[in-house]
Amino acid sequence: MALKSFVEVSADSHFPLENLPFGVFRPKPAASTAAADPLPPRPGVAIGDFVLDLSAVASAGLFDGPILKNSQCFFQTSLNMFVEMGRPAWREARTTIQKLLSADEPTLRDNDSLRDEALLPMIEVQMLLPTVIGDYTDFFSCLHHHKNCLTIFGEMENGIPPNWENWFHLPMGYHGRASTVVISGTDIIRPRGQGHPRGNSPPYFGPTHKLDFELEMAAIVGPGNELGKPVDINQAADHIFGLVLMNDWSARDMIAWEYVPLGPFLGKSFSTTVSPWIVTLDALEPFACDAPEQDPESFGCFTELSRNGQKPLTLTNGSERKFLEDGDEVILTACCKGKGYNVGFGTCTGKVLPATP
Amino acid sequence: MALKSFVEVSADSHFPLENLPFGVFRPKPAASTAAADPLPPRPGVAIGDFVLDLSAVASAGLFDGPILKNSQCFFQTSLNMFVEMGRPAWREARTTIQKLLSADEPTLRDNDSLRDEALLPMIEVQMLLPTVIGDYTDFFSCLHHHKNCLTIFGEMENGIPPNWENWFHLPMGYHGRASTVVISGTDIIRPRGQGHPRGNSPPYFGPTHKLDFELEMAAIVGPGNELGKPVDINQAADHIFGLVLMNDWSARDMIAWEYVPLGPFLGKSFSTTVSPWIVTLDALEPFACDAPEQDPESFGCFTELSRNGQKPLTLTNGSERKFLEDGDEVILTACCKGKGYNVGFGTCTGKVLPATP
Lengths: 357, 357
Hints:
Chain A has nine helices and 21 strands.
């Protein structure tokens, strides 16, 4: 049975009272004040088609639990301070917000002026990056994606024998570019770079020929550990605030030429898109299940779907794609299906623009 | 001929009036107030054995140029705001500070109370990371280091043919971990991780057997470019605030096992040390010269010096090293030699502590 909020939440909404994902938003300026400075970013929680302004809730003194009572964490322009406070603070906030938004709780429901101030229609706000990102690391979680990429790039382009023995022992990861992580909706300019045709031809420079997406989940990690002190795997969940969708845009021709020996770099670093609403582990916990068997294969990018451009994919509108073309928009979405409700991630979108001249 | 400051600067100092490197420091609390909160970090400039507190200079209204006059950039806890202002602001600050500290300028020289407030003995301050680091990328600049590493790891351990053709066409780089860049003097705890012995043995887990240093220069980059808009190479200097020394600590056994296909990761990400004083391009400009021919080889780490542990190195105290041992301290230093003065980088130090149990 779904929980009931006084805010209307449609049956197919990703954001019912069971979810309550955190983000950072800025009210769009009213048309009459378009020339004024934009309003400052502040933390919010999604409920149905509305955003609950946590700075307004905090200003009204409604975070009255022992951890958040006198905290400045919801008066910041990012969620970093709140994330660094750890799971007890996250749970206290969730409990307070869930009660405040429930159908039978009058505090916010019956206070017209506070409700108007604190609950903003989602279409009237601009979503921003929810945290300042101190570092970004990317992992292979799927053996078949790893095998596919190694086979496609390794065997087909570089004559290097596939070697995935270390995959079974290690987290196969690398650092991405923290400073080019962008929020859903940001346009993606086709990057220029080098590729290398087969055989003895010299490398070429120009807009990538093989712009690809990658469907990923990203974890927002905090609080951190002390330098040099490992995190016990049993405490891992205390360090993961929540998850977002991620599109790890990739220029495959650039990666194939650059990735030996230091790994992917310019073919990945031009942009990485994340969805704006961080879904907490507490919201996801009821949906925990065993990991799927890693067979048969699942495909999460054009490199796999089109076998590196060898087999074009027919889209539902009849057009064909080997890789992304200028003007294409990629929309990722995901949700957990509960009984009578969803706990969803909203969307993670980006449109491909032509390379700059 | 060296410039003359009213602050005494010894002939071998790295920090004469010609240098004026920027950093961020915190006055060490006096013994009597040890229990009090630490004083907030603020920007400073090194002069001889002293630090000029730029927040004190700004409070006194002595930054009177058109760009810095009403700026809050020296009241921040990092240099980010100042760095993002660009080269005109950097040059205006340098001109103002150089004049203020010169022997024939009475403003600061003859104002006892301001001088006592603004000029702090370097031994009475703690240096901090000068900027919040949004991203950190690492490049091969030396062909021979690249060849050496590929030969040592590629041929000797993985049976992969060395391939350095792309080095001649591309910046061979990767992203390091921005969140583990630490300031000079921070202890380095020997990391635990996986290595893989030769042959068919399984991988082992434990403290690295091959802890190494790497002598590098790091550029502090800012202001940034707009996403998707490349920086013209002729404008590159406008985006580089200055340089520091960097020790890119490396666990060679971990890297050898993990680096195919995504590049160095856990064997690099445990700590990277930078020196605290950012030497500006304007201070270095008089020493610009042609790059050295990349032959014969120069060695910048134990992997090269000891041929991956095959040939122990005899230190000046008679002891031998293949790689770093617990208790070893690595001290990097560098300076440009002018006529009667140096423009130096100070030191970049770190001591190796045993792995955590």
